[in-house]
User: Fold this.
Amino acid sequence: MNVQIEQIRKRIEPLRQQIINHKVYSIISDIEDLKIFMQYHVYAVWDFMSLLKTLQNNLTCTTVPWFPKGTAETRHLINEIVIGEESDVDLFGVRKSHFELYLDAMKQSGADTSQIELFIKNLKNTNDLKAAYVASNSPIEARNFVDFTFNIINSKKEYLQSAIFTFGREDLIPEMFISIVNDTNKNFPDCISFFKYYLERHIEVDGGSHSHLALQMTSNLCGSNEQFWQEAEQAVMESLQKRIELWDAIHNCIVERRLQIQAQ
Assistant:
């Protein structure tokens, strides 16, 4: 891998470790705690799909008439990732996106999906993130996380979109989810089999081909432009900080629930 990739990895490692070893994983001790986690995290699962499709739209031709766009290698990289994320299979072999897999996992565990579903329904009707947040009463930290992603989407800079996708999502997710799997497996019965499957699929897919494809895509897009690499590094660090803030919010919400129970 090139020098710039290794430099970004070195610079962001402290933030990566904060996420991988975050206290939120160990505080999840019952199914109600897990529901809280999922009701926040689902926003990150959804906006990941929006970032993914932005990259596909920007790096390939998705309009008619068709014309060659960009390099065939970069087109191949993003299309390969899209196939796995948008049309994977569930436990029963049914084709579903990873977002739909996550909703299934939420429903199996008893987590409330009405908030994220209302958010999506309102956004589909209005194309207005702020209006959708208000209508669904989305958590402020989830709003901040999604807003950052959409700021990068709206920047029209493919190299930044690819960078946060690679280092803030694809390259990070396997280690982050290993922490969740290790902790939740100790505490929960088979009622979270869909969630466990979702996590294992991410570890398998993102820890394998997808992270390598994403790294190559970012390397292709930044090329030898030092300004692109500097901007990419800054965007990745901000992306990881937003993840930490989201995890902090989940942890605080679980702690608040505990305190309310004790006060009863």
Remarks:
- The mean pLDDT is 91.
- Residues 21 and 179 are 7 Å apart (CA to CA).
- The two ends are 56 Å apart (CA to CA).
- Strands lie at 88-89, 95-96.
